[in-house]
Automatic annotation (TrEMBL):
Catalytic residues of the enzyme: 440 (proton acceptor)
PANTHER family: DIHYDROLIPOYL DEHYDROGENASE, DISULFIDE OXIDOREDUCTASE
Cofactor(s) essential for the protein: FAD
Disulfide bonds: 41-46
Occurrences of domain FAD/NAD(P)-binding (ranges): 4-322
Subcellular compartments: Cytoplasm
Record-given protein name: Dihydrolipoyl dehydrogenase
Length: 461
């Protein structure tokens, strides 16, 4: 039986990062992954969708050419080529992770693992037995399946199948207006698809600040998306060529027809086959593994990180948790992760980025809340780029002026939100933020301008 200091089950952003950190910390490390390294994020999520969104961005630029003084004529599109490029991008990064495994002398088992004891695993395909002083579960999640949809039908998509289709459908119903649904909507619409967006909650991007959600919903409708909020799926008929779906809203029903339907209604943890009940690892009612601030489960020496914990389904959150687990294994004690200060990004048009508390959350937490908003219509870089839709919103406490949250919509904001994480982590006040000199001309100046507004001393508005 091969024995290790650390075995990681799962090769996604939580798992492979934990494995690298363990190996570079001097621990003999193995990783078990039955599919490609990189997990859903790299293979069927974050990375390939950003590749497709880059295609969509170029399409928009070409279609808006006249306002910049050039004409391209009729644009010919090839969705299959776009998908091919997205797979090539993923493959390149997978190869990079495989190199990192070899570089750091991490043993990789291409297999599935299940527990046979608190510190022992059995590999499904090979039957090999492994032992470790510490085991990190990083098995991720999979799309939540809507019971009314028959996923065996070729025109019923989840986020993975949507990255395998080789043509953009003429029309599509997207159920779920979170980040996944809205990003796929952006891609398909850029290729001429008629897109119907259905969201059960009262607004699109329901986890974002209400003003951000309102702006995105308005912009999507302006661009020709058919958006329905506060709407539930009632029943579906599908002959493989046409989806006929009935929905309920405010006590009334309506029907939509489309070539395809995409379910983007969240994810559920991958725990099947791990044999966790063998020694009673605690799980919550959703089936997520309970883990404390150091990612320790209820069984000493067994850790859980990433989507399988149900804490925050983001790749960078999983990586941070993986590092936290290894720190604990190595005897390094750190404070708890502040999940409210882990940034969120949605790559729609406009882009959305946020960190910290929303205005609503800050009020619920008892703060005397104030806000300051600076529109990108007054930002030189955004105007020069011909894309000045959006704003930067600061949420802060009236008593001390401490920043509680930052919420952005607009061009390049996903590249700016890291600054908010620093401000929030250092508990900076809006007065201190206003003193930070930002480079000109950049969209990031909107953060400084919003801070000036918060201090009652607006400059460029």
């Amino acid at each position: 039986m091969a024995s290790y200091d650390v075995i990681v089950i799962g090769g996604g952003p939580g798992g492979y990062v934990a494995a690298i950190k363990a190996a570079t910390s001097g621990r003999k490390t193995a990783l078990v992954e039955k599919e490609h390294l990189g997990g859903v994020c790299l293979n069927w999520g974050c990375i390939p969708t950003k590749s497709l969104l880059r295609n969509a961005e170029i399409m928009r630029g070409l279609s808006e050419g006249e306002k910049f003084g050039f004409s391209t004529g009729k644009i010919k599109t090839d969705y299959a080529a776009a998908q091919k490029r997205s797979r090539e991008v993923s493959a390149r990064l997978v190869n990079g992770i495989e190199y990192l495994m070899k570089k750091n002398k991490i043993t990789v088992y291409r297999d599935s693992a299940s527990f046979t004891g608190k510190k022992e695993l059995s590999l499904e395909a090979s039957g090999e037995k492994l032992a470790a002083k510490n085991i990190i579960i990083a098995t991720g999640s999979k799309p939540f399946a809507l019971p009314m949809l028959d996923y065996s039908m070729p025109n019923v998509l989840d986020s993975k199948k949507a990255l395998q289709v080789t043509h953009a459908p003429k029309s599509i119903i997207i159920i779920g207006a979170g980040a996944i649904g809205m990003e796929f909507a952006t891609v398909f619409r850029s290729y001429g698809t008629d897109v119907h967006i259905i969201e059960m909650l009262p607004r699109v991007l329901p986890n974002e600040d209400a003003e951000i959600s309102a702006l995105v919903g308005k912009e999507f409708r302006k661009k020709g998306f058919d958006v329905h909020t506060g709407t539930k799926l009632a029943k579906v008929k599908n002959d493989g060529k046409t989806v006929c779906a009935c929905f309920e809203k405010n006590g009334k029903t309506f029907e939509l027809q489309s070539e395809a339907v995409l379910a983007a209604t969240g994810v559920r943890p991958n725990t099947e086959g791990l044999n966790l009940k063998l020694f009673g690892i605690k799980m919550d009612r959703r089936g997520c593994i309970e883990a404390d601030e150091n990612m320790c489960t209820s069984v000493p020496g067994i850790y859980a990180v990433g989507d399988v914990t149900g804490k925050l389904a983001l790749a960078h959150a999983a990586s941070a948790q993986g590092m936290r687990a290894v720190d604990h294994i190595c005897g390094k004690r750190r404070g708890p992760l502040d999940y409210s200060n882990i940034p969120k990004c949605t790559y729609t048009v406009p882009e959305v980025a946020s960190a910290g508390l929303t205005e609503e959350e800050a009020k619920e937490n008892g703060y005397d809340v104030r806000t300051a908003v600076f529109p990108l219509s007054a930002n030189g870089k955004a105007i020069a780029y011909g894309d000045d839709t959006g704003f930067v919103k600061l949420v802060y406490d009236e008593k001390y002026g401490q920043l509680l949250g930052m919420h952005m919509a607009g061009i390049h904001v996903t590249e700016m939100i890291w600054g908010a994480v620093g401000y929030l982590g250092m508990e900076m006040t809006v007065e201190e933020m206003a003193e930070v000199v930002h480079p000109h001309p950049t969209v990031s100046e909107a953060v400084m301008e919003a801070a000036h507004i918060a201090n009652g001393k607006p400059v460029h508005i």
